[in-house]
Amino acid sequence: RQLRCSAKKDVSGTGVIVDARGYVLTNCHVISGGENPVAILADGATVAAEVVFTDAAHDMAVVKLPAGRKYQEMTFAPASDLMVGEEVIAIGHPYGYTNTVSTGIVSALNREVAMQSGGTLTNLIQTTASINPGNSGGPLMNINGELIGINSAMRSDAQGIAFALNADMVQQVLSQHLSAGKMAHVTHGLTCHEVVKDEDGEDRVQVVVDEVAAKGPAAAAGLKRGDVVVKVGGRKVSNRFDLERALWDCKCGDEVSVSLRRDDKTLVKANLTLSRGNGEPITAAATAPEVAWDMDQVGTPVSTQK
């Protein structure tokens, strides 16, 4: 999806639909400082978009498309098992050339880049896929068409050196800013992490319970540390973001079915009775830098790399 904002001059970038209800992920520097964001959909329709949140420290933002239709969302893939040399695909709108596809490889992992406008982005994917102004916020995909990163930065003084936010960090930030507490004012009482299994298959990524809040809905339903959350309210759960958005349409007092795997084999059914969440905004850590983006540098060249 192409995104445009009105600022001192029109700025355009790319976005990824991460939820079928119309939530589009892009880079913060694509919309920061702009007004009246507009999205151009794959079918050519132009619609107004509403900013849901911006997170300059992680160079992420989400906008909401109009309700009334079901949008096609992208599937997240784990970034923790990416390999150097793996083939990747980038899609975007460089210099206004819409729906441009380029290919490359993963050149390196866990890179850090210091931005010219200040601040540092960490745990990045370095790629040789062609990234130019207008690609910002677009998907970096594996050969299966799954989202492994969000294209974010390039070196203006080199060729074949570009960077993407890795998908693991992206879905974690989404699960904070778009939590069930903030979106529906309910809480499930779980703290989880993802585990990537060696074997292929639809259950390769598992969401494992780390903590169960005392007297919370999950504790009342009998969930335990070490349980693997498989499905919540009909939605298959492959990451923490899935767990949160499974409850967006719920309200306090609703009973939600949960399927989980215990002791790595037994499938257990439980019912969560949701309690009220505080909906407090979750902000970046105090040590995270504030980034002042230069709107003339969409595509954001970097000054150093590590």
Could you give a quick summary of the protein structure above?
With 306 residues, the chain is mostly beta strands. The protein has helices spanning 28-31, 167-177, 180-183, 217-220, 240-245, and strands spanning 2-6, 10-14, 16-19, 23-26, 35-40, 46-48, 50-55, 60-64, 87-92, 100-115, 120-127, 139-141, 147-154, 162-166, 186-187, 190-196, 205-212, 228-232, 235-236, 255-262, 266-273, 275-276, 302-305.
General shape: globular
- Summarize the helix and strand pattern as letters: EEEEHEEEEEEEEEEHHEEEHEEHEEEE
Mean pLDDT: 85
CATH domain fold name of the largest domain: Thrombin, subunit H
How many β strands by DSSP? 23
Number of helices: 5
Which structural class matches the secondary elements?
mainly beta
Cα gyration radius (Å): 19 Å
Q: Tell me the span between the first and last alpha carbons.
A: 31 Å
Q: Runs with pLDDT <50, length 5+?
A: 279-306
Spatial order of strands in the largest sheet: 9-10-11-14-13-12
Q: Explain this structure to me?
A:
- The structure is a single chain.
- By secondary structure, the chain is mostly beta strands.
- The chain folds into two domains: 181 residues, Thrombin, subunit H (Beta Barrel), CATH 2.40.10; 91 residues, PDZ domain (Pdz3 Domain).
- Helices cover 9% and strands 42% of the residues.
- It contains five helices and 23 strands.
- It has a six-stranded antiparallel β-barrel with strand order 9-10-11-14-13-12. Strands 16, 17, 18, 19, 20 and 21 form a six-stranded antiparallel sheet that branches.
- β12 and β13 form a beta hairpin.
- The longest helix is centred in the middle third of the chain and has 11 residues.
- The two termini are 31 Å apart.
